[in-house]
């Protein structure tokens, strides 16, 4: 499978050398932000962790703390996010989405709909270690109904593997019968099928569904369900291109969301996100970032975006 990320591991990587370059960029009066952002956006997360270790070994202090003391604002938040291992990053975003009053459902939906079973199991472990709580319990405390049930299914991280040819037609018919084919909607069927089958299997089911009903599954979901359940089902269907929906709030930039997508998808499927963004909005993600952001924060985001479409 071709690599769909925009950030690749740097080829002639030398952690010790990178640590020195960053040290120099922060030494003395003023900070060389350009050097910092160009270096870190051109390294994979795994390489950034090696730089962190090399920095501590050479200078006896933590690289992230050093960066925090030199930088500020959104740019600082972005650089710190880039320095965080992906699983810890997801766990902290989920914790932030759940704690305090109200729940940031958009974050729950985006992360749980697009991570693999292995990743979800790791997130649950890190969540417990870093925040002392059980992710499933915390999510159940903040959600309800069929929406909650589907989140719990996704939290099991046990999607089936491969394609079950025998089940394709049956699943498509069951989905049709559960929604468009009847008065009212049988949500249970939707969540069981969409929550448990593999992505490859679901793609074939959705093709069969279209032949059967004449409409796309996501249109049927939008017609049959509402609110968080609708958003989660659509996210599962569209995953991984789900992330392009993050810009519907075009009224202003939601920096939290923008940053989360750019950081967590740069090594996964940024090229797909760029393509679906262009298709949905008629403009490139790159030019939208140029319009909506400024300064070093903007420069770093553009490097992560990786190109204009």
TrEMBL record:
* Organism placement in taxonomy: Eukaryota, Metazoa, Chordata, Craniata, Vertebrata
Q: Provide the Gene Ontology terms for cellular component.
A: cytoplasm; nucleus; plasma membrane; vesicle membrane
Q: Which family does the record claim for this protein? A: Belongs to the annexin family.
Q: Which GO terms describe its molecular function?
A: calcium ion binding; calcium-dependent phospholipid binding; phosphatidylserine binding
Q: What is known of its domains?
A: A pair of annexin repeats may form one binding site for calcium and phospholipid.
The organism encoding this protein is Amphiprion percula
> Would I find Calcium among this entry's keywords?
yes
Q: Which SMART domains match?
A: ANX
Record-given protein name: Annexin
């Amino acid at each position: 499978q071709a690599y769909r990320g925009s950030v690749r591991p740097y080829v002639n990587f030398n952690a010790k050398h990178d640590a020195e370059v960053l040290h120099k960029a922060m030494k003395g009066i003023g900070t060389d932000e350009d050097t910092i952002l160009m270096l870190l956006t051109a390294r994979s997360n795994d390489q950034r962790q090696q730089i962190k270790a090399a920095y501590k070994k050479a200078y006896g202090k933590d690289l992230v703390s050093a960066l925090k003391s030199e930088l500020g604002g959104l740019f600082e938040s972005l650089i710190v996010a880039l320095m965080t291992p992906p699983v810890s990053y997801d766990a902290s975003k989920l914790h932030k989405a759940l704690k305090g009053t109200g729940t940031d459902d958009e974050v729950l939906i985006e992360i749980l709909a697009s991570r693999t079973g292995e990743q979800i199991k790791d997130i649950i472990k890190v969540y417990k270690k870093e925040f002392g709580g059980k992710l499933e319990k915390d999510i159940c405390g903040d959600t309800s109904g069929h929406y909650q049930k589907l989140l719990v299914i996704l939290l099991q991280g046990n999607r089936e593997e491969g394609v079950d040819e025998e089940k394709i037609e049956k699943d498509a018919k069951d989905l049709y019968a559960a929604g468009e084919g009847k008065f009212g909607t049988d949500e249970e069927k939707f969540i069981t099928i969409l929550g448990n089958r593999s992505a490859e299997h679901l793609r074939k089911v959705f093709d069969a569904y279209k032949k059967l009903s004449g409409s796309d599954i996501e249109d049927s979901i939008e017609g049959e369900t509402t609110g968080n359940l609708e958003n989660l089902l659509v996210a599962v269907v569209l995953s991984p291109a789900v992330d392009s929906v993050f810009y519907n709030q075009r009224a202003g930039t939601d920096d939290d969301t923008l940053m989360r997508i750019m950081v967590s998808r740069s090594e996964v499927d940024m090229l797909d996100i760029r393509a679906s963004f262009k298709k949905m909005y008629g403009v490139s993600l790159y030019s939208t970032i140029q319009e909506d952001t400024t300064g070093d924060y903007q420069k770093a985001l553009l490097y992560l975006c990786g190109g204009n479409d």
